[in-house]
Design brief:
Blueprint (H helix, E strand, L loop, with lengths): L11 E8 L3 H7 L11 E9 L3 E9 L5 H10 L4 E6 L2 E7 L5 E3 L19 E7 L2 E5 L5 E3 H6 L2
Antiparallel strand pairs: 1-3, 1-4, 2-3, 4-5, 6-7, 7-8, 8-9
Length: 152
Amino acid sequence: MPELKVSAIREGTVIDHIPAGKGLKVIEILKLGKLSNGGAVLLAINVPSKKLGRKDIVKVEGKFLSEEEVNKIALVAPTATVNIIRDYEVVEKFKVEIPDVIEGILRCANPNCITHYEYVTTKFYVISREPLKVRCHYCERTMEEEEILANL
């Protein structure tokens, strides 16, 4: 099988080991369609992976992720690794982790939740990582993966 060849980036971030089919959601979360610095964005979909069988990869030139962005990626792609590139070298590499408490990055799916009517920071407790389930601090609604992805 031919090997995937992609040019190196000088500065930026590579998000690897994204479950196959989730790469577009990662691009959406990071708002990469709205990059103003003109940096290249590469999305490789359904590429062979020893660890996952198939995976997606997102490579972003000139962008470094915030903690909030990393936490959002963890919800979508809990197997992902983030590589920080500086001067064509990987200077930092880490696996994303779903935090025990998710604050301010997820909307509650309950239309009657106080978070839709009052200015309060949303807060969810992770009750299961596999399959992903969270519970709202305010209304105690449990949300599963499909609702979580729809409310990021």
